[in-house]
Amino acid sequence: MFRNAQRFIHQPFSKIRFAHLAGSSQAAGENKKRIEPSPNMSVSRNPVDFAYRQTITIHFKKDMKPTLFTILFLLSLNAFSQKKPFKEVIETDSSTIEIIRNSLYKCWDETYKFKDSTRFISWFIDDTTQVHYENWGRKNSNSYIGISREYKRDGTLMYEWDHDKGICNVNRTLYPYYEMLEEMKIRADSLIIKTYSKDFCNNHVRFEFEGNAWFGVWKVYDKDTVWSTSMVGSWTEPMTRKPNHYRIVYRVRLSKNDKTGIELGIELDSLGNYFPSDDDRWGNYGFEEVKGNQRSFNIDKNRAIETAKNHGLVVTDSSEISEFLTWERFGKKEFYNGQYRYYITDLTGKTEYTEEKDRKGIIYRFNVYTFNPWTGEFVEMKKMKRRHEWGKNSGHWTGLRPDND
Question: What are 271-287's pLDDT values in tens digits?
Answer without folding.
Answer: 999 998 876 666 789 99
